[in-house]
Amino acid sequence: MSASQSLPLILKAYLNTSLGQLHYRYYLPHPTPAPLRTSAPRSPILLLHMSASSSLSFTTLIRSLSTLGHPCYAPDMPGFGSSFSPTTSPPNIAWYASLYHTAFAQLAGFENGCHILGHHSGAIIGTELANGERYGGFVQSLTCVGPAVLSEGQRVDMARTFLDPFNRPVASGEHLLKTWEYLQWEGLSPGSDLELLHRETLDHVRAWKGRSQIYRCVWDFDCEEALGLVVDKKRVLGLCARDDVLWPYFEQFKAVGGGLRGEVIKGGNFGPDLDWEGILKWFVPFIDEIEL
């Protein structure tokens, strides 16, 4: 068997929603026959990507987590990847969270909730989903890769840089080069990250409108207030790289207190690809402590 054949096979599928089809990648561990089972089935992990990537960014993490027995699901956000594109601008983060909750809560294995690992915008959606008053026990734990606890003024400042659709399609094709150069500014090198740079360019070009739609909601969302509504903050973990665009605000995340944890990883703005091992180092013991 070749190395590629031995890798866990990540499948792709669609969930029908009232607004359109939600595309997702997933992996289901082989079920252990009941007489041989020594422990309860592991809870599913819901991986939520950043803007303007797609579920492709979680491929390596899914393959690693699959060996631990966790079912893994990674949707493409509406307006990203192969999911539907919203016909009108979503009004708030709760719109995305409610869509995910409705779509995944119906699946087998989610009866007792899931662990959420969200990256940047995905972490914001995950924080909203951790609101027990709105979504019940859907979230067993929340891990934010690049948490965004910003003051209102800081969010206004970020919106000046990360809101306008800089790569709106134009007849000259200039938007393609703009996207390529933007991702280099975000930290990807053509010399060492060419394949990742190419993949992210394609994802960002597809999501030129979806990026602005979610960012409008992100910069309106008070993450500190939302984290304050999480009852058990010991079930919240923040991970951030020193060269992540959100690193200057990481201390504000940790200052929320209540027992939540903050740890340092590497990988800049692309941790799930460039430091998946660092993420696993903190994430796996964290969810094991909750489950086992």
UniProtKB/TrEMBL annotation:
One of its GO terms (molecular function) is hydrolase activity. Keywords: Hydrolase. It comes from Pleomassaria siparia CBS 279.74. GO terms for cellular component: membrane. Gene3D superfamilies: alpha/beta hydrolase. Residues 45-267 form the AB hydrolase-1 domain. This is Alpha/beta-hydrolase. Signal peptide: none annotated. InterPro entries: AB_hydrolase_1, AB_hydrolase_fold, AB_hydrolase_sf. Pfam families: Abhydrolase_6 (PF12697).
